[in-house]
Specification:
single chain, mainly beta, 5 strands, globular
Length: 74
């Protein structure tokens, strides 16, 4: 479902991503904001899922969903 691991989370604002930890999918959502140091990102709320902060230091990785990067470039 996801395409490629992104190390620089600054590039993910406004994209749909899959968040993983220890190789397992944790959540899919829309990146609403990234911290100044790009060490954490916020996924926007969606339905019953609350707005959630994910931090690199806690082992989370972010994978843009296919088509997300092409849509952001337009």
């Amino acid at each position: 479902m996801s395409s490629a691991l992104y190390g620089d989370w600054n590039e993910l604002t406004g994209l749909d991503v899959e968040i993983k930890k220890d190789g397992r999918s944790v959540r899919i959502g829309h990146v609403g904001a990234v911290t100044r140091g790009a060490d954490a990102l916020w996924l926007e709320n969606h339905g019953a899922q609350m707005r959630t902060l994910f931090e690199k230091a806690e082992g989370y990785t972010a994978w843009p969903l296919s088509g997300s990067t092409e849509m952001a470039a337009r």
